[in-house]
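Give me structure tokens for this 438-residue protein.
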Amino acid sequence: MNLKNHVIFTLYTIYGILLKVMASKGKVRGVSGQYPLVQNVTVTEGGIANMTCRVEYNDNTSLQWSNPAQQTLFFGDKKALRDNRIELIRASYSELTISISDVTLSDEGMYTCSLFTMPVRTAKAYLTVLGVPEKPEIDGFSKPALEGDHITLTCMTHGSKPAADLRWFRNEKEVKGAKVVNASGKTFTVRSSLQLRVDRNDDGVPYTCRVDHEALEQAPQQATEVLEVHYAPQVKIVPSVGVPQEGQYLKLECMSRGNPSPDPVMWTKDGVELSDLGRVMVEGRELTFTLLNKTDNGTYRCEASNHLGTSSAEYVLYVYEAPTTSPPSTTPHFHPIPPDSTALVGTHASDPTVTGNGDPNALGHHGTDHALIGGVVAVVVFVTLCLIIVLGRYLARHKGTYLTNEAKGADDAPDADTAIINAEGNHAHAEEKKEYFI
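Here you go.
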């Protein structure tokens, strides 16, 4: 502070003391209802704090801002403290607004606005300075880890005020960590630990530590660690077609997963290593048959290895014969049945033209041919109906009373021989019954 400013500050101080003395003696009369109005202010470290003091009714009395150390900053529009960060925004009898730029943690505290009436009216506003947490750091992990290892990820941030909150995320899904807070002056150091037992599903997975704090607003600080986990390979064989047939193209793909990557893979057939044979080609992880035939039948094995282990998979290839006939008809054929009863002897319940003669290797598993069964049932029902009609007509034609020779002469005869003689005698004179066929 130079001499000029020191003199001004001294004069303002003496003037304030005189006003207080005069107020105590009652020589200056204040106006009722004159009270300064202020508000608490919260600002992020490094930001700008605007401090405003207003009065609704004022009789041309000056306003003054003082810092937590009771040093006068501004008296009216006159700057009292030499600090280039403090500037006047507005000065009148009803308002005094100042700004403090590049705010530090040491600026935090209680600020006083004074209205020099008799007696002096004051109001206090608290300036809160938020400490911005530093970007977090993750340590405790040495690449690579082996499957089954126990590791601890530790995240740490400094300089937050109040203490920051640390949160862990695995692939955007939050996981729980253990947090520890330590005070360091006005700020805090926050540490969070995450214990893991890693497996192959953690390989390449990002673990993120995020700092949540009101000073960061909508831009939280975070750090990410991508895990690298080594594990033994896993293998499976995927065919390009489900039912291989003669003359077809077939590709067997050996899909292996491991870290380090198990390249190359080895193909064998029935225990013998395969090589390019023109029609059968080995291209890295793929085994290709350009034109299948029965000689390709066998057990194919794919094997993959890295320094942590070996894994293999097998595929049993059976080449089916290609279909040589058109698919059988599923529509049953019905033959007319003659009304003559002699025709029923040679009638069959099933029509041989309905039954197909397909190749089971080409067609695979056959389901029940519902149309064929329906046709056979219809034929059986039709034949049964015809038999019932013919039998009915036969019974109708032979309906009547029939007597033996003994029965014809039995009415007056004492024995059987006499009955026969009487029947023969009466036969010549008896009225004959006639039956007519329609």
